[in-house]
Amino acid sequence: MAxxxxxxxxxxxxxxxxxxxxxxxxQVSGAHGNIEPQRAVLAMNNYADVGFTSFDMADIYGxxxxxxxxxxxxxxxxxxGIRGLTKMVPRVGEMTREKVEKLVTKSMHRMSVDKLDCLQxxxxxxxxxxxxxxxxxxxxxxxxxxxxxxxxxNFSTEVMEEIVGNGIPISTNQVQFSLVDTRPxxxxxxxxxxxxxxxxxxxxLCGGLLSEKxxxxxxxxxxxxxxxxxxxxxxxxxxxxxxALFQELLQVVHTIAEExxxxxxxxxxxxxxxQPVVASxxxxxxxxxxxxxxxxxxxxxxxxxxxxxxxxxxxIEAVQNKSNDLFSVLGDCGGEYR
Length: 338
Known about the structure:
GO terms for molecular function: oxidoreductase activity. The chain has a single domain (10-213, 273-306), classed as NADP-dependent oxidoreductase domain (TIM Barrel, Alpha-Beta Barrel). It contains twelve helices and ten strands.
């Protein structure tokens, strides 16, 4: 029987240890195909059994929290290393302690836990400053013991500075970060490093576009982008520089992958994991939708048998330097949502 590789982890500000590769559950929100909940739970157990024990979800990801709750119950006493990271994404409006606590309690109930490992807060409109009210209440709820790590998702550096300046310690910010979208390197990384904040990176594989499947192929038509992820990240690629430049990037990454006997996804993932400010990457999983299991390939992304060389990084950067500046196009991280 082959030995299962050990999944490395990162310890966050308040002691929570999360896998370097986190299983993303946006795909069970309904925008990526019909979900079979029991099939999803079986797949989650398969991932957890080989070391992929951290799961990222949100209260707005359809049944994601409920599916995680069923998964938790299915584990029985075998909860070693299981982590459930969720997001609170309220409608913009009044944020009373009662309302905020009710949302926290609802997530705990759905996830079948008595404490949230990590609560990542999102706010749609910066012009409405009541996100500060919500964060202050969440901080109090954290002190009460219901939240381990208090975090953000898709917040800009400027607003993070404001939140931290109001005495609210933040553990992580979840942002889009990939070979195509390097906006976190502009301002956010420096601020996070100074304030002991880590980043969770999503969109690392551009919804699957950063893979051999799309190397050397014609630009896909809109009707061929059959999932929300493919449509979203194809739009990002268009803003970044277009399909021809993306093909140039894919070819460079493919050459690097062949040099190290790994996949394009491995190189794309490793590039982001090597950023000092990144705690973990979030790789989407189509639990309950598709039978594909990417654990073996994902383990190659964190293998110590290979690493990106200075020459590898230089060839990647040469292509990136030809692209448009997404920071100027979209604004800081999360700007595309506001």
